[in-house]
Amino acid sequence: MLSSESRFADFPTLRRMTYLNTAAESIPPKSVGEAIERYWQDKLRGMDGRDGHFAQVEACREISAKTVGLQTDEVSFCSCSSEAYNLLASALDLGPDDGVVVTDLDFPAGATPWLRAVRPPQVGLWKANTAGELELGDLLPLLGPNTRLVQVSLVSFFNGFRVDWQPFRDAVRRQAPNAAISVDVTQALGRIPLDCDDADILISSTHKWTLGIHGGCVVGIPRDRADRLTTRAGGWLHLANAFEADRFEQAITKPGAASFSVGMPNFVALYALNASLRYLDDIGIDAICRHADPLVAKVADGITDLGLSPMTPHRVERPTGIVAFRHDQAAAIEQRLRSEDVHVMHHAGRIRIAIHGYNTADDIDKLLDLLRTTLREVTK
């Protein structure tokens, strides 16, 4: 996929480290740095630079829509997934008689706005089983005619579990016909093909597998769901009459995805995202999967051979970029790996390993060799 020469040309910092932490932060390609420089040059033009700024927003909208499988006018941007979910809460305007279902494998951004609502809805928790997987049978009792939202992550940040989308979607449509399905694709977009068709809203941060930077969020809403999922926020960019004569009498919101862009875009993040998604598009997500999925399997098999248990089974039919395991010496393991410039994530007794297209078999060999040595050291 990437030759040694192109890998180091595009990602020069990988010459000096083994980076297996993309689920937290990506290493952007060189083209992203060049895009940031273009932003800077446009910004130096003052007001005239806005021509370049908004042209980049539209170019980013086009490639983002292609990447998530929607039409251009079905995609918009805000500053982060937390903002997107709070805006979604304003669109749904839920109350005490409404139900929301979240999972214990979700990132807090998608799970907590419903707990902080002025009129909190009834929140049901879909819990993972002891194998770290969400079972459909545990979801069904949580669904009903009053369910207004079911929120899931296509791939869990916590352990890499990937929702079996079609059975999940069909169950929600059948058991909770009034519910919107919201899916966080932050841990999928840019790494695996998205299979979450018929979702009502897709949300993704931009600084992980998409290889972008902080300060951006992709929001996708099919146009036939737009009226239902239009925010109630104030602002200006998302308003159809922001500067019209009646602007102090009423605020007319553009419908659907456009309503999530409430203010001036974070232009630099969208310059970066436009560059990073086009970089990934040139390579191809399928090519990334063909290269990286066997490396994920190698990690899962390797840590099992070391006597460790992956927090969710590795499934060939539903691959992701993440493998995680628990260990009571996780902090010491992460510190030892980092001393050898091997970067993974440690949090609360959990080690998470994340593998993208810029990783190599040598990276995995180095990781497993160090893990073998480190486990001997920490268990003496």
Q: Key features?
A:
380 residues; alpha/beta; Aspartate Aminotransferase, domain 1; Aspartate Aminotransferase, domain 2; 2 domains; 7-stranded mixed sheet; 3-stranded antiparallel sheet; 12 strands; 36% helix; globular
The ordered string of helix (H) and strand (E) elements is: HEHHEHEHEHEHEEEHHEHEEEH
CATH fold field value of the largest domain: Aspartate Aminotransferase, domain 2
Give the distance, in angstroms, between the N- and C-terminal Cα atoms: 41 Å
Structural class: alpha/beta
Major sheet = 7 strands, mixed
CATH superfamily label of the largest domain: Type I PLP-dependent aspartate aminotransferase-like (Major domain)
Q: What CATH first level of the largest domain would be assigned?
A: Alpha Beta
Helix content: 25-40%
Instruction: Please tally the β strands and state the result.
Output: 12
- Unreliable stretches: none
Strand order, largest beta sheet: 2-8-7-6-5-3-4
Strand content: 5-15%
Using only C-alpha atoms, the radius of gyration works out to: 21 Å
Q: What's the domain count?
A: 2
